[in-house]
Amino acid sequence: MSNYIVSTSPHFQSTSSTKTIMLDVIIALIPATIAMIVLYGIYPLFLMVLCVGSAVFGEWIYNVITKKPQSVGDLSAVVTGMILALNLPPVVPFYVPIVGGLFSIIIVKMLFGGIGKNFANPAITGRIFLMLCWTGIMTTFVVPNGFVEGTKSFFQHAVNINLGAVDGLTSATPLASVKASVESGAAPLAGYAMVSGWSTGNAYLDMFLGIIGGSAGEICSLAILVGGLYLVVRKVIDWKIPAIYIASTVIFTALFFCKSEYCGEYVYTYLFGGGLLFGAFFMATDYATSPKSTIAVVIYALLLGLLTVVFRKYSTMNEGVSFAILLMNIATPLLEKIAPKAFGTPKKTFKKIFAKKAKPEAEGGKNG
Amino acid sequence: MSNSKNNVWQQKGKIISNGLLTSNPTFRLVLGMCPTLAVTTSAFSGLGMGLAATVVLVCSNALVSLLRKVIPDKVRIPAFVLIIATFVSLLQMLLQKFIPTLYSMLGVYLPLIVVNCIILARAEAFASVNKVSDSILDGLGMGLGFTLALTLLGFIREFIGSGTIFMGSIGATEFGLTLGKLPEYSMSLFVLPAGGFLTLGLVMAAFNAIYSAAEKKKKEKMEAIAAQIEEAKKEAEDFAKLDAELAAANEAQVNTEENKAENEEVAK
């Protein structure tokens, strides 16, 4: 028996590793990817390949240059590339995903110490970086006109930086029309022209199925819900974050627009018309950048919802999910400080707090 | 005589290179970050800011050094600030008269040179304890180091952020390069504050990496020379030992020969 060594706890074993978790995330992203291909054709898939390729290449070359152990095998760079590609508009010049992938991995992830040490979600920071670099390109969305049409026409625009000049190609997003209606006081979807051809004729159903203008992978709420539920069922992500985030967005939207007669429409558009679901399931739940303890998670998700609504309603941009997540990522270390007290810690009462304050006086100049 | 003269020049050179490289105010001391981040949206404004700070730095260093024995220790900081503020006001008026474009470009950061920590730090750390000539050189070195850093940052940010090289104007003459259609493809983040932080961090990392690599090489070279000297010393010692042994052996031989001769004599 003396051959057995007893190590310290925990003793349980699990087959899950970074690689299996990342594989689960990739599987969960597949429905959104399929929806993207069905709606836009092959071109966004080509962008996704560029994104994933540059992200993986970035991690590989960084490890080679700095002589660190190779970490490409854990597939996290693949996930970052995929999420970034799904965040991009469906038609952007080919160099945009390359720059984005390299920035996400090298600057945001590897320079801060690699996986698990990044202060912010690499994909979302990459998206914001691209957004601020090429604002025009990153806020121009094309009409989802189906696999065949998209494959035929979008490759012609592989280097076009001014899509708006092409007739009938670009489409307004539901959030843009909501923004306009916030100022004018009209119905949120009054200014929104439904996408011709593929449209079901019902703006609400269109929004749910993703037949609207928007980022390549964020528009099809159905596909994202399928992928997100898969992650929740597999227990890869903490269900509390997306649930509370979505709920708080709904509540705060209702609160902010409670005076408007179109309150319900606002809530529905904010819920399914932008990147909220995708952000809630795939980006706000990143392990390294979201808090762990229950109370911190609740505050994190509540503030995410509040910030999203505030940005969407009051800022100059139509979309606020990515900025909200980035800000809360940065606040995460602070939230982690709200740790549960050790068992047996005496409760603080007013009496004791005052007693503590009085103590140094009583001890006199001992410390001073 | 010439040797000591060389030494003096070496010392003066060291004071200047100290400001340019060894303790470059931006990349090594990390001082004066406010203008560094705010003004470097173009190479021209970076250069202008750097030169303006250099002029103030040289003048204030000279005056502080001149008055270093007069200023009472307790009120030295207010005295320094007063001296610096005088020169900044002068410079501000001169720029407003002669290069109004630069004056409006630098905006609030021109009067803010008064509280630039590089200038106050050099007054406190160097000028108040050194000779006038050395203080002027230190101001020049530090100022040029600051200018170099700001121009470099401005150049990078301008090139990536707006696709131009050294755009600017003095009076009616405009200069600078626009590279074809590049401005259309430029990454505008780099002229925003976030791009400033990003560029500063990356350039600072590169500067320090190159610097420490050079330092390491220098150290290795010195160590190699030291090792050579040590070896030579050892060899010399060995030779000395050998010599001593040889001499001893010779003596011993002579002795034995003498002994032999003596023995032979005795035998006879």
Would you write up a description of this structure?
- The complex is a heterodimer of chains A (368) and B (268).
- With 368 residues, chain A is an all-alpha fold.
- Chain A has 16 helices and 2 strands.
- Chain A has one domain.
- In chain A, α3 packs parallel to α5.
- Chain A starts with 17 loop residues before the first helix and ends in a 5-residue tail after the last helix.
- The C terminus of chain A is likely disordered.
- In chain B, β1 and β2 form a beta hairpin.
- The relative contact order of chain B is 0.13.
- Chain B has 2 domains: 190 residues, no CATH class; 58 residues.
- In chain B, 75% of the residues lie in helices and 5% in strands.
- Chain B has a two-stranded antiparallel ribbon with strand order 1-2.
- At the A-B interface, α5 of A face α9 of B.
Record keyword descriptors for this entry.
heterodimer; A: 368 residues; mainly alpha; 16 helices; disordered C terminus; B: 268 residues; two-stranded antiparallel ribbon
Topology diagram in text:
The complex is a heterodimer of chains A (368) and B (268).
Chain A: H1 18-40, H2 43-65, H3 76-87, H4 95-109, H5 122-133, H6 135-138, E1 141-142, H7 147-154, E2 170-171, H8 174-184, H9 203-209, H10 221-233, H11 240-256, H12 263-272, H13 276-283, H14 294-314, H15 321-335, H16 350-363
Antiparallel strand pairs in A: 1-2
Helix pairs in contact in A: 1-3, 1-7, 1-10, 2-3, 2-4, 3-4, 3-5, 4-5, 5-15, 10-13, 11-12, 11-13, 11-14, 14-15
Chain B: H1 2-22, H2 33-39, H3 43-66, H4 76-98, H5 100-106, H6 117-125, H7 132-162, E1 164-170, E2 173-178, H8 182-185, H9 193-267
Helix pairs in contact in B: 1-7, 3-4, 3-6, 3-7, 4-5, 4-6, 7-9
